[in-house]
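Lecture notes, unit on protein representations.

Consider one protein chain, 394 amino acids long.
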Amino acid sequence: MQTWNDETRHGQVTRALHWAIAALIAVLIPLGLIGRDPVNSAAMDTRLAVLSAHKTLGLLLLVLGVVRLLLHAVQKRPLLPSRNPFAQLGAEMAQGLLLVLTVLIPVSGLFIHGAPTSAAPLWLGLDRLLPLPETQPLALQLALRLHPLLNWLLWAVLAGHVAAALWHGARRDGVMAGITRGTPRPGHARRYTRLLPVTAVISALTLTLGVAGQIGILRDVSAPMQPEIAMPRSEWQVQDGTIGLVITQFGQPIQGRFARFRADIRFDPEVFHGLAGQATIRIDTNTLDLGALTAQALGPDFLDTQRHPEALFEADLLRVADGYAAVGLLTLKGVQRRVSLPFQLTRTGQTARAEGTLVLDRRQFDIAPGLDQPGQLGFEVRVRVSLTATRRDG
């Protein structure tokens, strides 16, 4: 079998990349649609798992897309089945757009993942292996608008690509056999310079962005993520709530909760973008109930509640695209980390209920450092927060 392309056939490397990218796109599209669908907090764990899968596979798509794009630029390409220069240019332009989008879409996704409000981690500990800089507000706003826009363009190009594949298959002109089995095919030389498809792809992307700007998709991108506003006009009194956690020991989930905490919340529900308030939550760590593991969890190797009887979370409350996020500093066992708690808010009159899940890595807070195998004690700790508060005007 032939490894590299020539003018009569696709090589093994090109065909392997082609079908690997096609399979990834087929999986990523439904994962992305499911992950962005608003859900209640009961399904938050599932949604975070779906988003983690989408992000990790998207990173793999970026790697394969870059390799495929580079090979496309330097390798020979099989001759085209049509003599028509317009048909040739259309085929080349569609292929070029697909290759460019397999790079641009994951890049925009990485910018979104780098936001402080991003909660779903990459698989395999890639967040630690590939520490990404925190996305700045302007870049995040641009990425949030470009990511769905480029996906719409991808779907349109894919529809044309699939239609063309079916047409070639019906004609039995060798195109489908060439990309599936690597068989040689007859063809015709390109009747234009190699730079013309590149120019056409750039023009198509520019036109797409221009139309998006005209219809408002990219409008107000420069608006700050956290605009300067007055202190929220309302204060909220917590009436009921729970702060629970789930750990995994020897593969089995174990649930616990803190019996006592205090919350000071200032929040303006009329803010629909950016900073909507602040919250300070103080948790009495001595009140943790973790069943048979409670005494061990309160000990010096774990929460060390004798020396650190309180956990503190000081956060800004941000209105984001798919709900809210509490972003700030969590102090636990004397260690401070910046974290993001995504949550959903439901309001009934003067009462609001917030529910969300925060995923922590216990190693970042020096908890049970001697247990360095996840099979003994899982690294992930899921903190589930549910608060019901009543607004007091004034």
